[in-house]
Amino acid sequence: MNIALQEEVVRFTRKVAEHGFVASFDGNLSLRSSEGIYITATRTLKSDATTSDICLIDLDGNLLEGERKPSSETLMHLLIYRERPDVMGVVHTHAPYATAFASARQPLDAAVFPEVILDIGPVPLAEYATPSTEDVPNSLKPAIAWANGILLANHGLVCMGGSLAEAFFRTEKLEHAAKTLIAAQTLGGAVPLKRCEVDYLYETHQTFKRRGVLMDCESLDHPSCRTSDDREKLVCHPSDKNCREEFISKTAHAVLKRLKG
């Protein structure tokens, strides 16, 4: 096995424990490589993981190297890798706030946080499936083609990424979002962005991405960056000509300003 890849899996395995996303033996992580799939072994104490806790398997689940039995959720990881060639890392945790949503059987699909909208997208809820059985990967099938994060009813969360690091960061971001949404309930609940604001967000992001320019909310004087009272006055739809013209004008201004500055 490649020791560097083993160590990478170990590093993020310990991180999920350090961040409180798992308890004791909970959860599992994997990384795809040209050699096969590096995956945590079953009954791995995440906080004390070492390279001896990492197995190498093929896409059929056969053990190629390692002395331990691969994770009991190996079938879930394998399905993701088979169905998603773009995925190179998978992180399954029982992060408390995200799992609270999963236990309440509520998806994290409201358009509330720009960062989640852009980096992850809607997070659907998979039907309940008995852990460690083939029912778990089967429950993911309706969403596996497009979702970057999926809540497992009464179980936990699984995140995918173009690297193991990205899968971990998405886990971290979703857990933070879930925690914030629960806190917002004490204030009457979070207010989702309007459809126009979401469309504007996507288009602005793509404009900056094409130009290699990063942006933040302060870059644009758009209603989505104003107060909630101002947003309530906004009457704007994706097909609205004035909305489109405002988008083009302000995006061009912001891009030029950022390039010059």
TrEMBL record:
Any one GO MF annotation of this record: aldehyde-lyase activity
Matches recorded under Pfam families: Aldolase_II
UniProt-listed SMART domains: Aldolase_II (SM01007)
Superkingdom classification of source: Bacteria
Record GO cellular component, one term: cytosol
Alphabetical keyword list: Lyase, Metal-binding
Keyword Transmembrane helix appears in the UniProt entry: no
Protein name per the record: Class II aldolase/adducin family protein
Naturally occurring in which organism (per UniProt): Chloroherpeton thalassium (strain ATCC 35110 / GB-78)
